[in-house]
Amino acid sequence: MAAPMLHAVRGAARRVPRVSCRCLSGSPGFLAAVARRGLFQELFPPEGPGLPDLLLSGPQTVYCGFDPTADSLHVGNLLAVLGLLHFHRAGHHAIALIGGATAQIGDPSGRSLEREPLNPETLESNVRGVRDSLNRVFENYQVLHGGHAKPGATFNVLDNASWYRNRQPIEFLSSVGRHFRMGTMLSRHSVQSRLKTPEGMSLTEFLYQMFQAYDFYHLHQQHGCKIQLGGNDQLGNLMSGHEFIHKVTGEDVFGIMLPLITNTTGDKLGKSAGNAVWLNRERTSPFDFYQFFVRQKDSSVERFLKLFTFLPLEEIEKIMEQHVKEPEKRVPQKRLAAEVTKLVHGKEGLESAKRCTHALYHSRIDALEAMSDQELQELFQEAPFTESLFEPGTRVLDACLAVSAIPEGARGFDIITRGGLSINHQKITNPDEILVPGQHILKNGLSLIKVGKKNFYILKWLHLI
What we know:
single chain; elongated; Tyrosine--tRNA ligase; RNA binding
């Protein structure tokens, strides 16, 4: 449904200062608790009681946007999802907004080059994948933490394509564009940084902030939304939404900025940086996801426990005290990995990650036997997966040749006799040894063949007797 024509309230747009969320430490309710975790970095506007009083007045609606520029969200997006879930736990209504329309433009914030345009099929697939990410995390959150949420809170996933689809460009620019000032838009950091590059900035990207501001306005009008969450690189977009809504309606709305997650070199974790850890299993397996958090350094693990989990701060403090006494056990890292993997992939995803960990790093035969074909292929991503009919009398040499693990002839024979081969973590030195189910072939019909230190081959035996 097309929005009504907009009419400006008298008075110029106000300059919106920022304030650190440290000022919320004395605020009542969950806002102060979440600020102490470091999840809320800055907010605006800071004048008067503002946001704390609004939250105390009754359930509010908060939203955060996610542009579907890939078919999955990633760890860099996860804090925004957690921000919405913290509001939900406190009894407020959360909206995760998929930018099915704005993804065709692409947010210029934090980028040095314009995004490649998405074709309709790719965009549709991306929207579906991002929706799956959001719904799955919320469903896991409900199972794990839903009992702690206040009743009545809702969580909805919307797509802004639903309100842009039938808008005419001339009508939209006439009713919405007239409320934006070039000077203000040009002053945004995301614009200034791009204008200084040789490539510059296209008009399409320049107008992104107008569309995001209108998203906030639409949600404000249709859902009573007064709070927007965004990464701290989204300051310009958040401010544009605040200024636009105040100018048109005379009402105040609020923006809360979340910290950006970076790697050890300071690069933002995301698709653009080429180092994304994805939330969908098809892109990042539960094992790799789990290992990403297990490998976090001591210097960042406490912060990540506060940001990425719902563990009480008192419990985190005790975990860190234990870590000081027994750092070799890496208790904080393991707890962090377990909590976040459960949230993103569910309890079964965590169990899968642990099976893979035991199979790879602890050479556990029982873990290998419990693994599915999918888990084995995820764990040994570069390993060829071959299916073969099992015949009694098949030798070790035959199995290796079936998967091209060794060359034919004397050279392949020598690799085995010299101790360069293992099957299911057991070293084999006799090429003519007969394969025995339960030893060379696991209960799940699989043989994991390793040649040298890093070359794995997965053999699935069919029609086992």
